[in-house]
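TASK: fixed-backbone design
INPUT:
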């Protein structure tokens, strides 16, 4: 029994070492920094990537990446989480409408940052909400992600028509003031969102692990991203959001995310705590 346990422990140690070497190699070769991502989540996703790329070990996967760099864009889909939906957690969007929008109305112009926008579902959700509330015309939305292919999909604004029924239900539960179908055109099994929404959105690559703040904004929405970071990288990201937000600006996080243990916690007040909406404190 002791021999089996020791062998299992050594096997786990080797896998941990391989993972650290893999993310270090990705950083050195491709300048994408995943060293601060949660190890357990990375292991699960790399396990799926090993199957996809025909590798038995992480070391083999690293070898392929270093010697076949053309596969890296496909690899990014495993390194970054591409699971989202429009108006995900409708009560969050309802809280934005009821509690945040009335204060956003007081600004002559607005800037919103959607960090980790993936394929764009959250970006279009916010754009539609702001249009319904009469604020989109004075708003610029920055949509950022480290995955270039995901950004291209987001900019195209094309989604499977089969998903629209679910997205529509979410939209209605968010306090919708219009029909979701008013904002897209359906054709050939696809839904293409209006260019009138896209003209208020700037899509750009940005890494929460390595890049700096690029604008002052009134609202940051970064939902279900921090859960994939370790504590140090979570703190870095929250520091960026704090620096980017104007006085009394708003930060929205995912339902399973928290600022409780962050060194930036005292820079925010709980605004709608049950929906993880925080407000940047004003000057002392």
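OUTPUT:
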């Amino acid at each position: 029994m002791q021999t089996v346990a020791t062998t299992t422990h050594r096997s786990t140690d080797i896998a941990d070492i391989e993972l650290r070497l893999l993310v270090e190699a990705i950083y050195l070769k491709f300048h994408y920094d995943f060293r601060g991502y949660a190890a357990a989540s990375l292991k699960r996703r790399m396990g799926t990537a090993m199957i996809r790329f025909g590798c038995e070990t992480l070391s083999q996967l690293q070898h392929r990446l270093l010697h076949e760099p053309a596969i890296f864009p496909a690899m990014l889909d495993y390194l970054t989480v591409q699971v989202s939906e429009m108006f995900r957690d409708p009560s969050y969007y309802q809280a934005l409408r009821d509690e945040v929008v009335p204060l956003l109305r007081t600004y002559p112009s607005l800037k919103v940052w959607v960090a980790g926008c993936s394929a764009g579902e959250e970006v279009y959700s916010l754009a539609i909400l702001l249009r319904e509330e009469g604020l989109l015309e004075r708003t610029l939305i920055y949509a950022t992600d480290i995955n270039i292919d995901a950004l291209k999909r987001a900019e195209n604004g094309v989604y499977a028509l089969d998903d629209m029924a679910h997205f529509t239900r979410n939209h209605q539960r968010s306090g919708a003031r219009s029909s979701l179908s008013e904002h897209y055109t359906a054709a050939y099994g696809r839904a293409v969102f209006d260019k009138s929404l896209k003209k208020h959105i700037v899509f750009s690559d940005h890494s929460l692990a390595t890049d700096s703040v690029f604008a002052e904004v009134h609202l940051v929405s970064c939902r279900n991203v921090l859960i994939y970071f370790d504590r140090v990288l979570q703190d870095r990201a929250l520091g960026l959001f704090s620096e980017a937000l104007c006085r009394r600006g708003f930060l929205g996080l995912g339902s399973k995310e928290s600022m409780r243990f962050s060194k930036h916690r005292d820079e925010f007040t709980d605004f709608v705590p049950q929906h993880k909406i925080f407000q940047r404190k004003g000057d002392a």
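COMMENT: The two ends are 62 Å apart (CA to CA).
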